[in-house]
Amino acid sequence: MKYAVIYCLLILSIVSCKKPTDKINNSTAKNLLSSFEISGSLKNFSTRKIYLNKIIESSLYPIDSAFVKDNSFTFKGVVQYPERFALTYENYATTSIIIVENKNFQLQINGLHLSEPLIADSPLNDELNAYKTSSKRIFSKINELFPQFQKARLENDSEKLKEIGSEMKTIETEFTNFTYNYIKTNKNSFLAAMLLKDQLKTSTVDTLKIKSTYKLLSSEVKKCPDAIAIATTLNLH
What we know:
This protein has 237 residues and is α+β, with helices and mostly antiparallel strands. It is 41% helix and 23% strand. It holds the Pfam family DUF4369.
């Protein structure tokens, strides 16, 4: 069970506490110097329409849509601060999570890996991928333990399950420490706020540590939706 809990920490699925009216506005984008354009392409699958969704708690709210033509699609707009958004596909249940920032970047959606789109020319998505890559060293330890966990559970080996549970806890702690160290080292990055907000939904929420780490974030990062959600949840205003 711990395996699933730890692994879910990498899925950047819950984002903002803002209301759905605080959405991307294409007309507003025309009046601002900074905006985004997502140029997407499809591979190994087809769909008629793609939706860009704002994530509020565990719900998705469509704020824009694009028709697919010649396996390509485009989204244009503006975000006040970078956020994680969800792409959903007509007639498909899978969701792709991406960070939307005011950049022109490319997206390739592969039907074989819908939840892992390839993203180019987006610094924050590159940063997130680098974080995930660094995390793989920790998760490889879980991959080694999980077959043992399944075997012990089938055999109802309580002693072995207890031993594996202890090792899983150690790995979970290692991953948590890795994430906090990453946040402290990258306190000027909006990704730091996203990762810190994810700590609010872990199995054991360390509010004191979240509060002290929040204080390290730069003043600009504290203005983004993820940081605001942390401050609101923990009454830090």
